Amino acid sequence: MRPSIALATAILAASTYFVPISGIVASNSLSGAFAQSEKSGPVVTSFTLDNGLQVVVIPDRRAPVVTHMVWYKAGAADEPPGKSGIAHYLEHLMFKGTKTVKNGEFSAKIASIGGQENAFTSSDYTAYFQRITPEALPEMMRLEADRMENLVLTNEIIIPERDVVQEERNARTENNPGSLLREAMSAAMYQNHPYGIPIIGWQHEVNALDKDDAIAFYDKYYTPNNAILVVAGDVDVETVRKLATDTYGKVARRAEPGERMRPTEPPPRAARRLEMSDARVRTPSFQRLYLAPSYYSDEDGEAEALEILSAILGGGSTSRLYRELVVEQKIATSAGAWYQGGALDHTEFGFYGSPAPGTTLAQVETRTQAVIDELLKSGVTEEEVKRASKRLIRSSIFTQDSQSTLARIYGASLTLGSTIKDVQDWPERIAKVTPEKILEVAKKYLKLNRSVTGYLKPEVDAQANEG
Amino acid sequence: MKTLDLINLKSAGKAFARLALATAFLVVAPAAYAVDMKTIVSSKGVKALLVEDYTVPLIAISYSFKGGTTQDAPGKEGTAKLLTNTLDEGAGDIKSLAFQEALDDNGMKYSFSAGTDSFSGSVQVLKPDAERSFELLTLMLNKPRFDAEPVGRMKASRLNGLRAEATNPQAIASKALRENLFADHPYSRAANGTIETMEGLTGTDLEDYRKRVFAKDNLVIGVVGAISPDELSKVLDRVFGDLPKKAKLTPVPEWKVATGKKIQIDFETPQTNIRLAYPGLKRDDKDFFAAYLMNYVLGGGSFSSRLYEEVREKRGLAYGVYSYLATYDYSGFTGVGTATRAERANTALEVLRAEVERMAAEGPTAEELDKARRYIKGSYAISNLDTSAKIAGVLVAIQSADLGIDYIDKRDEYLDAVTLEDVKRVAARLLASEPTVITVGKPQG
Fold this sequence. Notes:
heterodimer; A: 467 residues; alpha+beta; Cytochrome Bc1 Complex, Chain A, domain 1; 6-stranded mixed sheet; 5-stranded mixed sheet; 16 helices; globular; B: 445 residues; 15 helices; 11 strands
């Protein structure tokens, strides 16, 4: 028996095609999606309503299904100090009803036609979506527009939901030593920027969140001029324009969130090292993160070069790290690298590896460092770059098959500041990356003072693999 | 939000095992959306369902061999799972690394998976690269090398996973459930293998499994995309045509699960995992749709079920709470589960049991049944028919479960034929017994 895989998981799997260990932001690297075959790819249109809401339409008329998403330019990194988790908690509370719609009524309407819905929060954005048949689109737009301005919260409803969030934190983080270490590594990585705070929030701060915190965040960021509507699937532009004007168009500008300025990182001076032991750990693992620019904070094509650098160093079983550590030396059972380019501010370039029985974390780290050093010394070959970029570009064509994935790619990219053209030109930019540029970004960013190294270990007495 | 709200950028996404399992099979489409499918039979006798579509320059193929992990030889548990990792590690004259490079350069997307009752795979190929993609797929299915080096590497990786299972509360609960429900039936065996069996596996075991299970008489195929019937016919012959005519499957006996046991497994973790198991049914049971509707009302409907309402919405006891019909080819059970903090675990368990008892005694209301019916009709197309790859999967599911080529058109009728009495009867049939209860953690409260 194989449980059927829920929709959201399927979308995620698709969007994390390149960077399997990171979340949706990786989808950004899929950006150019269909620029490769413009002839057959959908024509993406965008316009802006008078109240500032940007609308993006991505037609895919193959099946009578529509993906309707609203993206807010507000995420965990926009939370006030001491209120960690409020962006995500508010996301849960957005399902609790409005002045005219009862708690659960929106969800019930979606269920009554067999639709799917969900929402997600990242450091940089929060998004809500429904997947429905085209006839239901007007109703979805009416209800989604309604909860953009008319949310009503009572303590009776929101206190149990806070417990739900704590259970979610338990399930995602507290239950899992690997997640606990990652949380600690992020906190060590960002010395000033809020990316160091977990999206779900610190447990003690989540415990203290209340209705006023949620409403304050809502009133500050949930306004049409801070949102992007994405409609993909069996629709045409004119229908969406009319429906959007009649629904979202009537929502007042509720706030002026202004420029998205977060506290920035000082120059990193010291390499940081963390170790965590936990009785639940059976297989030790090594991770190394480097502070690196994102697609949105980089200078002149650095992100594209980092994308290919990560593919060459650690993307899959033909990568340098896998071949050296797993195939040749046999000191690791897994080894690789990833780059999380889809973030507003400086982000992470990461390495991971798990030692083979009889070898140590230190051996895995040393050998990983040797692979990095060799690259810093000799650079990458023209052929490696061609292969990696071709592979990235080819894979992006597959996103044409999924309206949900396209909606996510455009939603995330535009929310972070891309234009439609930026998204469509991504394959072209990837194709232009040179070995020289890759060596340049590697030298600039893969420096130990920019890094955090983490060791996850079994508890000392159960430690068979550590020498 | 509700099942998957937070995409945590800072932690490994795949570390989080999803709690909201839906149901154990793939539901198929409503009559409103006609899927224009053709049956293709190649000259070597390979049959496939095809939906032609040239909108996107892709071809999606799904296929499934009846068999699955039940066909692992005794003492060789984990063979089918290891096979999913080794078919692409060298084939024909091409060794592991060169083969991986060839796959990379070609850009095809592919996957293999070993379920309990079937071994299945899928590919998505770009039309301009299709020739090479099919060549590589043919090699993987017909001439995998299973060289000692890559097999050893894949085993090492799987062994790592098996070691981690020992301290994963979800895996611990699943193992206890499986072993208790299925006793000495093949379904009780460890699909992923054990450390001992995995260590013992060799390329010979993999080839032996492949020869027994990859055949034409237990194979179903679904194809969607930019390919004509004639082109497909040639592809079918090439990829699948030279497989043996008949599979050599070890028969799996029918099994009725026995419930009523209480198993508490002590484990230091903040959350207690709770699993309940009741008798179930198979996909071909005449009460299947009645049970499916009942399950939706109880805990299958993600944000609208009774369990969601009582456990999560009203009491904030858990993030994920669910029920599901686990339908196997030769058995079935009905599962219920959640995870909650230790001090509320007993409360959560009481609520779960009370809701199941209420369903067993009273069934759903007419209104609940109506809602369930509408959801299950409508969700079919929305969830399953929006991408070529998913439609290919549906074509396979229809054939695997022998639902009939008109299933997509008939599905609404089947659902409409279910009465409230039917659902009440099946609720009592499945849920009136004493469940097997498994708790992993330190339940209190």
